[in-house]
Amino acid sequence: MEEKFKEKNILIVGASSGIGHNLAKHLLSEGANLITASRKKPEDIDAPHIELDVLDFDAKELQNQLPDALHGLAYCPGSINLKPFTRLDENDFLNDFKINALGAAKIAQACMIPLKKAKGAGIIFFSTVAVQTGMGFHASIASAKGAVEGLTRSLAAELVNSKIRVNAIAPSLTDTPLAANLLSSDEKREASAKRHPLGTVGQPQDMAKAASYLLSEDSSWITGQVLKIDGGLSSLRNL
Ligand SMILES: NC(=O)c1ccc[n+]([C@@H]2O[C@H](COP(=O)([O-])OP(=O)(O)OC[C@H]3O[C@@H](n4cnc5c(N)ncnc54)[C@H](OP(=O)(O)O)[C@@H]3O)[C@@H](O)[C@H]2O)c1
């Protein structure tokens, strides 16, 4: 089997759970030299781990643990904080912004030297379907992920001459620990599945396969894009 990521150094921030965990398995099976970073060491992922909290880390310390050249970076931390607008306070907005947008920007900044050294690298961020499709109770998370989409396109433009492609994935509801509350009963799961034209909620591998494609040379002419992976929710209507 062809190993698409042979000799490619890839950092996944947030490989201990959900989409990032699935992406880690996928990249390892494709021969990547994987490095993971998060608060907990991922289970059953055979790769060097950097213990790090994206809300409070020392960029120099992270840089010292990275290889000379980094061919890929996936930033997976995020939040689902759904509340009526009048119940959202300043901390909700700030916390969502910090974990989703500021963390992504600071991690990408800390990785810039080895990403440039690779002379051909990819960055993946995660947005949400609720940025480009308005959804009630999503004001805080959609604001934060809207910033992620702005970051994606700005960095894609700024880094194009450094041969770094920057793309994002905008998932709808995906069956991971982050979404556990929204899928905590058969009734909720069924109702969520029905809202999607393709009739199911997303699986982590749906996002991981797309992230793997966007990190690989198969997508070498794609940058500055936000790929909607949402079972048709944002673009189809079931009549
Ligand atoms: N699941 C969905 O329905 C859904 C929908 C739309 C968008 N998304 C987005 O997709 C991305 C992945 O989501 P997921 O569902 O896979 O989430 P998840 O299961 O909660 O996994 C998140 C990962 O990020 C890490 N992480 C969280 N906070 C961190 C911190 N402060 N410092 C370092 N690492 C941290 C976690 O590791 P540790 O706990 O070990 O630190 C974990 O490995 C997120 O950006 C999310 O917003 C998900």
Could you describe the 3D structure shown?
With 239 residues, the chain is an alpha/beta fold. The chain has a single domain (9-229), classed as Rossmann fold, CATH 3.40.50.720. 38% of the residues lie in helices and 15% in strands. It contains 8 helices and 7 strands. The chain has helices spanning 18-29, 59-64, 90-110, 112-117, 129-132, 139-158, 186-195, 204-215; strands at 9-13, 33-38, 49-51, 72-75, 121-126, 164-171, 226-229. The chain has a 7-stranded parallel β-sheet with strand order 3-2-1-4-5-6-7, sandwiched between helices. Helix 1 crosses helix 8 (204-215). The longest helix has 21 residues, at 90-110. It is globular, with a radius of gyration of 17 Å. The structure holds NADP nicotinamide-adenine-dinucleotide phosphate. NADP nicotinamide-adenine-dinucleotide phosphate (NAP) binds at residues 14-20, 38-40, 52-55, 76-78, 126, 128, 171, 173-174, 176-179. NADP nicotinamide-adenine-dinucleotide phosphate (NAP) binds next to helix 1.
Topology:
Elements: E1 9-13, H1 18-29, E2 33-38, E3 49-51, H2 59-64, E4 72-75, H3 90-110, H4 112-117, E5 121-126, H5 129-132, H6 139-158, E6 164-171, H7 186-195, H8 204-215, E7 226-229
Helix pairs in contact: 1-8, 3-6
Residues 14-20, 38-40, 52-55, 76-78, 126, 128, 171, 173-174, 176-179 line the site of NADP nicotinamide-adenine-dinucleotide phosphate.
